[in-house]
Amino acid sequence: MTSVKTHRKRYYITTPIYYVTAKPHLGSLYSTVLADIAARWHRLKGQEVFFLTGTDEHGQKIANAAALAGQDPQSFVDGFIPAYKDIWNKYHIEYQHFVRTTDPEHKHAVQTWIEQAKAAGDIYKGFYKGWYCVPCETFVSEREEDVVQNTTGPHCPTCARPTIPVEEETYFFKLSAYQDKLLTFYKEHPEFINPSERAQEVINFVKAGLKDLSISRTTLSWGIPFPGDPKHVTYVWADALMNYVSAIGYSQPGREQDFRSWWPADVHVMGKDIVRFHAIYWPAFLMSVGIVPPSKLLVHGWIQVNKEKMSKSRGNVIDPLDLYNTYGPEAIRYYLTRYIAITQDGEFNITDLEQKLNSDLANDLGNLLNRMSVLAHKYAAYMLDPITVWSASSLELRNECSNVQREMNMYMDEYMFHLAYSRLWRFIGKVNSYFHENEPWKIAATNPEKLKEILSATAHSLYTIALLAWPIMPAKMVQLLESLGQLWEPNNNAFKEIEVNVWNKSFIIKKIDTLFPKYESTPMVTPASNQTEQASVQDYITIDQFSQIELLVGTIISAETVAQSEKLLKLQVDFGSKGVRQILSGIRMYYSPEEVQGKQGVFVYNLKPRTMLGLESQGMMLFTKDEHNKLQLVLPAVRVPNGTRLQ
């Protein structure tokens, strides 16, 4: 097959193209942010990147929506483009091209492909009688009809909406002829669909048998005219998928080299609901005309609200503009990347969002930068020259810089962004521990050289953090770099610099405004005259309520990390005559297993057990935070027998 990429230092990534029947929602933002992060990561590594996004503007659904709005289809779709470009700009989406399926170049590419597939013997005229899902633009085969049935006819197996009967002349693509070729392709390219669970679903579907695909309509006028037959317009999926090649020069005179240098695409990013079209139709379309398929499909789950997929019909769609106005773009980029795993559906929750922004961004990262800069200016140590001799604890931190860079690179290459940034935040926890344990505020006045070493090690660590976090929070990380007196451009292959990890930089520590604000949920408003009385009553609990809580002293006899979590330690706690219990505690960022083993602590003994990551936790350990925001164990003043209850 032809069209093998000639420049491996080039990286080509795409989003799905979005239907323009409404403004962008959180689901479309999620796909686009994932693609932007991957694009920025490869820029960080010195590669030339082409990042494509755009809109899908043909089909029955668009025609129907335009008619309801009292507009012609072209004017209707034109009206949505500014909303997409505006929100992508607000969220710092740095794409190279915005493709529209109404672009003349795209129309030419689709018609060229049809003519070439015809010449290859893969397109023929026939007659279609069956069912069609307008919202999904999907023909429902007989095999699929058995998935969901009701008295009025089959429902779509993808969206569960009713389908409509369709009976018309059509052109078919010989999809059935590609069944064995596709199965061979999947076997030879096991990395094609990521995550692998999605791959098996596709393979099972293909093994069950493929039918030829209708690729034209006669009952619809809003689409790309089918070449050689003016009664027909092109089926929307045979139109839309071609955007990935039309945008980089396919079939365009004078752009042959562009196409050769960018294709095949390195990654198509998409939601799981459209993986079948991309994993079956798209490779077959390309094979028909001798073009190699893309290298990878990155298939993410759905964002859910209250355990349900977001949809207009359920009334639970979240507007990215509202989130932008409340939290800013980079906080949302961070939360979507870190806390919604690509491998499964993810719950979007405002309360959890605010808690994570406060703990991870404001406390862990923002407070670290603030503490360092305040101390540097208080003791006139804000100009830091390179350090020639490092202490053991500083060298340990430098080694951890190398570790986090290497491990993040592994996760990012696998597109496990949530794991990559969990790893980075464990490193941020290490830097906080280093700063706290060295207590620079105690030696600042008496040992200025040691103070500068601690500040320099912290600044080098923050420099690494800024570069590694730049793909998710580009503007904030540029601010962080500016606070260190550093100017940086991603095209200079900054990744190589942190990979070498030579701590020989000079820094000028500057005071900047708070990097990350804290958020507080809006309290209930009560009349001013009753506010004090209401608060005092609501804050009380009764002695009976308090007496129900069993607070017991126990000794941690063993502790180990939980492999699937960046926060949890699994503790075995001895409560004397009451036995040993397993308790999971989210303290991994503050304590190693060795640091807590053998310690006595205070535990809520009669808390209802709950399961986390397949492990049962049978209680809760109590902590408080010190002035440096580090968790400290709540300990009895003297050692007491295990199982002693607090009075």
Please sum up the structure shown.
The protein is globular and about 90 Å long. With 647 residues, it is an alpha/beta fold. The chain contains 24 helices and 29 strands.
Structural description of this entry:
The protein has 647 residues and is α/β, with parallel strands linked by helices. It folds into three domains: 10-327, Rossmann fold, CATH 3.40.50.620; 349-508, Isoleucyl-tRNA Synthetase, Domain 1, CATH 1.10.730.10; 543-633, OB fold (Dihydrolipoamide Acetyltransferase, E2P) (Beta Barrel). Helices cover 42% and strands 18% of the residues. The protein has 24 helices and 29 strands. Strands 1, 2, 3, 4, 10, 14 and 15 form a seven-stranded parallel β-sheet that branches. Strand 16 and strand 17 (308-309) form a beta hairpin. Helix 16 runs antiparallel to helix 17, helix 16 packs parallel to helix 19 and helix 17 (417-438) packs antiparallel against helix 19. It holds the Pfam family tRNA_bind. Belongs to the class-I aminoacyl-tRNA synthetase family. MetG type 2A subfamily. It is found in: Cytoplasm.
Topology:
Layout (H helix, E strand, L loop, with lengths): L9 E5 L3 E2 L6 H19 L3 E9 L3 H9 L4 H6 L2 H10 L6 E4 L3 H16 L3 E11 L4 E3 L1 H4 L3 E2 L2 E2 L9 E10 L5 H10 L4 E2 L1 H12 L5 E2 L1 E2 L15 E2 L1 H5 L2 H4 L9 H7 L4 E5 L3 H14 L8 E4 L2 E3 L2 E2 L10 H8 L1 H11 L6 E2 L2 H29 L4 E2 L7 H22 L3 H22 L1 H4 L4 H22 L4 H10 L10 H7 L6 E2 L22 H9 L3 H5 L3 E11 L7 E6 L5 E6 L7 H4 L3 E5 L5 E3 L2 E3 L2 E2 L1 E3 L5 E3 L14
Parallel strand pairs: 1-3, 1-14, 2-3, 3-4, 10-15, 14-15, 16-18
Antiparallel strand pairs: 5-6, 5-9, 7-8, 9-11, 12-13, 16-17, 19-20, 21-22, 21-24, 22-23, 24-27, 25-26, 28-29
